[in-house]
Amino acid sequence: MRTHQLIPTPDTVTQTFDRKTPPALTIDPGDTVAVRSLDAWGHLEPQTVPGEVKAQMFPERLGHCLTGPIAVRGAMPGDMLAVNFVSFTPDSWGWTAAGRRSDAFTRALGVEPGVPQWLLWQLDAVRQTGTNDLGQSIKLSPFLGVVGVPPQRPGSFSTTPPRADGGGNIDCRELVAGSTLFLPVTVPEAMLCVGDGHAAQGDGEVGGTAIECGMESRIIVDLVADPALPSVHAITPTARITFGFNPDLNAATAEALKAMLTWMQALYGMERTSALALASSVVDLRITQIANETWGVHAVLGHSAISQA
């Protein structure tokens, strides 16, 4: 298996999902890609003061600055793509902004609507710590917010909402190094795009952004012949995860839990209602993000949660 390098240049980035975007790189299943991505907005240099306007990769920003697409030879609709996250190394700087939107949710929080506040972060990838311009430090847990393939439908699609058909802006903090994300292949050669590095994020991404940063990611991209589920799902170092994406929180919750019940039936040979009863004791439901027009919910089943007698 080969190892490829992919860096962000005007010819290797995109800010929409579109099946017609030409590939920036073509690989074989099982190959490794060392891929660099800029922060979500495509900043080419850090801010020196909060809110400072700096040069970006795209003069007109339409969506996330993603590296790709990566074409996978032989991948066809109906296949399942496995993206194994080997390692993440955040850049030395990042930012977080909140209050950019003026909406009912922001007003309900008592936040002054439409008046953004910024935190600028210095990131130490060796110590895995981040310190902001207010002198506050936190532990880093880096991952990629956007990992996805384009919809099967023709056209140019926003990177903002996550989608059941191909993932995208999932923003799941569980997908750290050592995890594998499984995505349904929607178009020939998959056309995988990655980016939106997060040095740290809480469940929900409640302010609308995480610690947004550039990222060096090492990934192994493969095809899976017999996936556990036909929908987006993941295996992390600690758990199995299923996802629901819907503008309705109840519907997103049901989607995530429905997929987890199917997985539990296969794992434990259970009748479905019995799986629901067991899930009520061991499965955690978490709000993945509320920032992306479409709610995200993930169901989490820990690897050590159930022991078979």
What would you report as the Rg, rounded to the nearest angstrom? 19 Å
Q: Can you give the helix content as a percent range? A: 10-25%
Number of helices: 3
Assign an overall shape. globular
Beta strands, count: 18
Q: Which consecutive residue ranges, at least 5 long each, have pLDDT under 50?
A: none
Strand content: 35-45%
- What string, H for helix and E for strand, traces the elements in order? EEEEEEHEEEEEEEEEEHHEE
Distance between the termini: 40 Å
Q: Structural class of the helices, strands and pairings?
A: mainly beta
Output mean pLDDT: 96
Taking the sheet with the most strands, its summary is: 18 strands, mixed
Question: Can you describe this structure?
Answer:
With 309 residues, this protein is mainly beta. 12% of the residues lie in helices and 38% in strands. The protein has an 18-stranded mixed β-sheet that branches. Helix 2 packs across helix 3 (272-282). The longest helix is centred in the last third of the chain and has 20 residues, at 249-268. It starts with a strand and ends in a 7-residue tail after the last strand.
